[in-house]
Amino acid sequence: MSVMDKLKQMLKGHEDQARQGVDKAGDAFDAKTQNKYSSQTDAAQKKIDEQLGIQEQDRDNPPQ
Length: 64
Known about the structure:
With about 60 residues, this protein is mainly α. About 75% of the residues lie in helices and about 0% in strands. It has helices at about 5-10, 15-30, 40-50, 55-60. α2 (about 15-30) runs antiparallel to α3 (about 40-50). InterPro entries: Antitoxin_Rv0909/MT0933 (IPR028037). This is Antitoxin.
């Protein structure tokens, strides 16, 4: 079993929390680098979301 499979299994049912964590980490990184690498950060966040099975529309419309 690959590492990604293990992560997906652990996060099953907690996709919203995972997305929030990815967003928070990206925002912290952007703050530290003064948004110098924001496009790369956004691309990395999108790639992580794809790997975790989080849809783009879910990112744009988080649950309340």
